[in-house]
Design brief:
Elements: H1 2-43, H2 49-65, H3 70-81, H4 92-111, H5 116-128, H6 134-146, H7 151-163, H8 170-183, H9 188-197, H10 201-205
Length: 220
């Protein structure tokens, strides 16, 4: 009996060791993919086809070892987003990449439904695809409720609101107004810049407290 128990213990130890190695390798590959995207962002440039393919392959390989990792899914969504060069793409290739981004974010949201940023990214992606449906509205509401004070969420939702303001139902507009009001406390410059670019200063300037910002000189 003891030899059997010993064999099982060794087998369990080896299995756990292999699992740890796989996890470490997946972490390394994920780090490499993220490092590339950080370099592209800092350099304010789009990757070459070879650079993109390498980062995409690294993240896909990492995913084979950690299928249930929501962060890897979102990292993959980010790398696919790098292939989309316009806010509102019309080419089939760009639309296909954006759809891939959306599918990956949906998978991540199922694994990590309490992530406000994931829901904000879903809403932003659907905004780019101009899919202003019930899923889009739910994503906005989820993001606003789960991350009321998260800066990235505030900026993402405000930008979405400015882009499609007159297509949004009144309750969603009210949600976004509350998000913008909180965002004005520390991110007023970014909000005024977004509002200026999207010709929605009327929306932002009507938010309570907006005219106290030094950037409110843009309000008429």
């Amino acid at each position: 009996m003891r030899p059997v128990i010993g064999t099982l213990a060794i087998a369990l130890f080896l299995a756990l060791a292999c699992a740890g190695l796989f996890q470490a390798w997946a972490g390394w590959l994920g780090f490499l993919g993220n490092y590339s995207m950080t370099a592209w962002s800092k350099g304010k440039r789009y990757p070459s086809p070879d650079e993109w393919a390498r980062a995409q392959q690294q993240l896909e390989s990492a995913r084979t070892f950690e299928r249930g990792n929501p962060k890897l899914l979102e990292d993959l969504a980010r790398v696919y987003k790098w292939q989309v060069r316009y806010d509102f793409p019309t080419s089939r290739v760009d639309l296909a990449y954006l759809q891939q981004v959306l599918d990956l974010l949906r998978q991540s949201a199922r694994l990590r439904p309490a992530s406000a940023l994931t829901w904000a990214n879903i809403a932003a992606t659907k905004s780019q695809l101009v899919q202003l449906d019930d899923e889009y509205l739910r994503a906005i509401e989820n993001a606003a409720q789960l991350g009321p004070w998260e800066p990235e969420v505030q900026i993402a939702l405000a930008n979405i609101g400015f882009l499609h303001w007159h297509s949004l139902p009144t309750p969603t507009q009210a949600t976004l107004q509350r998000v913008m009001q909180r965002g004005l406390k520390r991110q007023d410059e970014e909000l005024f810049n977004f509002a200026t670019r999207t010709l929605r200063l009327d929306v932002l300037c009507a938010i309570p407290g907006a005219r106290r910002s030094k950037f409110a000189v843009r309000c008429h």
